[in-house]
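Discussion board: Methods & Data

I've been asked by a reviewer to show the raw model output for two of the constructs in my manuscript, not just the figures. I'm not sure how much to include, so I'm pasting the format here to get opinions. Each protein appears as its amino acid sequence followed by a line of discrete structure tokens. Is this the kind of thing reviewers expect to see in a supplement, or should I convert it first? Here is construct A:
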Amino acid sequence: MKSNGKAKVLLVKHWMECHDRGVKSVASILRDAGFEVVYIVYMSPEEIVATAVEEDVDVIGMSFSTGAYDAHVPQVMRLLKERGLEDVMVLVGGLIPDEDIDWLKKQGVKGVFGAGADTNQLIEMVSTAGR
């Protein structure tokens, strides 16, 4: 958490994902709300967790426009647990079918934000991280 008491957020998208408009909009919205945001394009879940450790983040937001979340989210959650980082809030956004939301939450994801999601709800959720 930053000295201003706001969570530090890592936003990520896979290098194979060509759509980045949504995640870049989220980065802007969170920065405007006073959060420090780090944005990376990653190749593996290990890179996400390594960056989360290096940047000492409170939140990881993963963006998907494909179904890659079914492979990447469980790996990220496992790696966070192995590193003792279960307190890092993981959020998922993008093109997520409604029928997959419960599965993602069972993996440990705290919130799922699809296209048109309420950004005030996102800001509120991120505000609770690191407390």
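Construct B, same format:
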Amino acid sequence: MTNFRVTGFEMAHWSDAADLFLAPECCYGTLQLPYQSRDEVKRKLENPPPNMHRLLALLPDGSRAVGLLALRRYEGRRAHSANIGMKVHPDFHGQGAGSALMQSAIELADRWLDLDRLQLTVFVDNERAIRLYEKFDFEREGTLRKYAYRDGEYVDTLAMARLR
């Protein structure tokens, strides 16, 4: 297990973050489309939506970002909740980057943002990610059938949430 350092996202690491968006394994496991240009990814990173908090998992020496987590707080009557999306570079799967990001996101949600509900969707065949989320007390709330079109077929996702 590597000792990853979690920080807020800074544009200095946009190129590493773009590598995550463009990695075929990350594209396959998330709702990202393939064949995005680095320019498109850079524009997304430069212009985040409102209420978005982005965390990076860095190598211990800070030389490279290997994971990105976005926590987006809802507004109005759902201001007590947020949605999470995460990517970890395939070279670092199973080494603790996802755990470091989830731990930091939960700390931010519980201790600083006063959020009662964190939610996410995950493809039903992404067993590694499901185990990670369950490790952090996310529970399965249901299956969203034909939720996304991926690699020529419709696939289901699990809706998962953690209630404080």
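Answer (T.O., handling editor elsewhere):
This is acceptable in a supplement if you add a one-line summary per construct. For B, something like: The beta strands are 5-8, 52-58, 65-73, 81-88, 117-123, 139-150, 153-163.
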